[in-house]
Amino acid sequence: MKVLIADKFESQGIEQLKAAGCEVISNPELAGDTLVAALKDTACQILIVRSTKVPAEAIQAATGLKLVIRAGAGYDTIDVKAASAKGVKVANCPGMNSTAVAELAMGMIVALDRRIVHNTVDLRNGVWNKKEYSKALGLKGRTLGIIGLGKIGMLLAERAGAFEMNLLYTDVVANSAAEQKLAARKVDLDTLLKESDFVSVHTPGGEGTKHLIGSAQLALMKPTACLIHCARGGVVDENAVAQAIQAGKLRGAALDVFEQEPGANDKEFHDAVIRCDRVYGTHHIGASTDQAQLAVAEETVRIVQTFKNSGNVLNCVN
Ligand code: MLT
């Protein structure tokens, strides 16, 4: 079975695929036209991607493609509709990097409260300003509102519980484990936004959640509150965040994901929100720890092996 890897992928995973008898072609530079050409020329049956976008054009041009695997949880970078239309299956690796994302979200809460990035920048510029940076809420007894208490939200709740934070959450279903173990309280979105000192977004992306947090929602938040967003670009309206911060209606925001996110090989990013003071940004690195990448690679190999041996597609999303 021929496998094309069009992204960075753990070398251990590549070796495991080879050991399983796959012919592996790995080219992390593929994107756009070169991906289209490679899908035509290699006639691979399986395509593995992480950040590389797989548009309809690439799927339509593919000659032997049967399965696209997203080495991650989200699959909004793959045109699933076009894949389904061509009978190509799409699979993902849910849950494998959840801890890494929860760790980043927790780090962002601390970083925003203590303004760690601002502290560092001032020190680098030779400025000592203990008076300014002595202002912080502190986390103990403060309220964290988690929008979407799935696996990542729950891991964040456990971490915030260790910081003795109070927990509110929204979700379609009640999470009795969180309520019993962590005294988390399920509320509606408006209540969560009004009562929280920190709000962290952990919903899936897509049309259903587009701009779930926009200017109307931000207006409900306390001016001393901070927003953390490590979910999917588009769930939060970035322009609305910039306006709320500039108007002093929000203390800070930390964003790991963006509406117009560059692909794997793009080297520039000029999103206006990131130039706002009090907005911290990271390069969609929530899932990017060694532990998480290894777990994702292992799951990807498991999907390939199962498909090769039985034709079944684990974690199929279409
Ligand atoms: C995911 O969907 O799991 C992450 O976005 C993975 C990544 O950073 O590529």
Distinct compounds present: D-malate
Oligomerization: single chain
Shape: globular
Tell me the strand order in the biggest sheet. Answer: 8-7-6-9-10-11-12
Largest sheet: 7 strands, parallel
The number of domains:
2
CATH class of the largest domain: Alpha Beta
- C-alpha end-to-end distance: 22 Å
Query: Would you give the CATH topology of the largest domain?
Result: Rossmann fold
> Mean of residue pLDDT?
96
The CATH architecture assignment of the largest domain turns out to be: 3-Layer(aba) Sandwich
SSE order in H/E notation? EHEHEHEHEHHHEHEHEHEHEHEEH
SS class: alpha/beta
The count of β-strands is 12
Could you provide a short overview of the structure?
By secondary structure, this protein is α/β, with parallel strands linked by helices. It has 13 helices and 12 strands. The protein has 2 domains: 2-96 and 290-310, NAD(P)-binding Rossmann-like Domain (Rossmann fold, 3-Layer(aba) Sandwich), CATH 3.40.50; 98-281, Rossmann fold (3-Layer(aba) Sandwich), CATH 3.40.50.720.
Descriptive account of the structure:
The protein has 318 residues and is of the alpha/beta class. The chain has 2 domains: 2-96 and 290-310, NAD(P)-binding Rossmann-like Domain (Rossmann fold); 98-281, 3-Layer(aba) Sandwich (Rossmann fold). The protein is built from 13 helices and 12 strands. A 7-stranded parallel sheet has the order 8-7-6-9-10-11-12, with helices on both faces. A 5-stranded parallel sheet has the order 2-1-3-4-5, with helices on both faces. Strand 4 (67-70), helix 4 and strand 5 (89-91) form a beta-alpha-beta unit. Helix 1 packs parallel to helix 13. It is globular. Bound molecules: D-malate (MLT). Residues 50-51, 72-74, 97, 284, 287-288 line the site of D-malate. The site of D-malate has 9 residues, from loops.
